[in-house]
Design goal:
With about 260 residues, this protein is an alpha/beta fold. Helices cover about 30% and strands about 25% of the residues. It has 2 domains: about 160 residues, Rossmann fold (3-Layer(aba) Sandwich); about 70 residues, ACT domain (Alpha-Beta Plaits), CATH 3.30.70.260. The chain contains 7 helices and 17 strands. It binds ribulose-5-phosphate.
Length: about 260
């Protein structure tokens, strides 16, 4: 039941529900990964089943692909779609320019490819993800398993010349084993605390051999939908310079909550 949801989950749901308004009949839609994106997939699934919405979804992870199929959304690959009308995804941090840190769920490689292949990227997040300067959330860097320890050392050496406050790096684990991404790679998290120049850091990190992609999304997000625990939603559009507010009502009868 909705009333049993935590304020953060209510905020995530509110953002997802409002962002679903961006989806129109016939669209090819990139489907993000994570708990906020999961709410979106549920909302879209309900629109497909109840309102006859016809969309093709391109998931950004195997987890989202499974969720989308279960929700009744037609799933296609990015190669089949080639280009997307819209991608809706979560984020770990966003700043006032709508630059992001993503990859907390380990899916930022596919997420960045899919978002970049879209006319528009809409990010859904709870207000707690807002920061003045990116970097409190550890920055994920996907690296290939071959020579990952050397890549980790190169990352640390590279950080010496960068405008960051911390330089510790850790291999992401899944229990006793290294975390493995959908592409079979590892993730090294960079504990930077504060990133002075995110654009520069993103370019430099991707020059290191062994690095596949970092979790900085610079100039990719067009719109952010920010949810609050009381159902208030704020929509900021960076291209149009607009800010809109609305209210999402939580209905206890909503089918979305039946499996909680
Ligand atoms: C996954 C991501 C997610 O969008 C990010 O971690 C936010 O997740 P959540 O919505 O669960 O807070 O980048 O790689």
């Amino acid at each position: 039941m909705t009333f049993d949801l935590s304020p953060i989950d209510k905020a995530k749901f509110a953002a997802a529900k409002r962002a679903a308004d961006y989806v129109e009949d016939g669209m090819r839609v990139g489907l993000g990964t994570g708990s906020t994106a999961a709410w979106l997939v549920k909302c879209l699934g309900e629109m497909v089943r109840n309102d006859g919405l016809r969309i093709k979804g391109v998931p950004t992870s195997s987890r989202t692909a499974q969720l989308a199929r279960e929700a009744g959304i037609e799933v296609i690959s990015l190669d089949e779609a080639k280009w997307l009308d819209l991608t809706i995804d979560g984020a770990d941090e966003y700043d006032s320019n709508l630059n992001l840190i993503k990859g907390g769920g380990g899916a930022h490689l596919q997420e960045k490819i899919v978002a970049t292949a879209s006319d528009q990227m809409v990010v859904i997040a709870d207000i707690g993800k807002q920061v003045e300067t990116l970097g409190a959330f550890p920055l994920p860097v996907e690296v290939i398993p071959f020579g990952w320890q050397t890549t980790k050392t190169l990352l640390e050496e590279t950080l010496i010349g960068m405008d960051v406050l911390g330089r510790m790096t850790t291999l992401r684990m899944n229990g006793d084993h290294p975390f493995i991404t959908d592409e079979g790679n590892h993730i090294i998290d960079l504990h930077l605390n504060r990133i002075g120049n995110a654009r520069q850091l993103s370019l430099v990190l991707n020059q290191i051999p062994g690095v596949v992609e970092n979790g900085l999304f610079i100039d990719i997000c067009d719109v952010i939908v920010i949810g609050h625990g009381d159902g208030r939603v704020e929509v900021r559009d960076i291209n149009h310079g607009t800010v809109e507010e609305s209210q999402i009502e939580f209905l206890e009868t909503d089918n979305l909550f039946s499996d909680l």
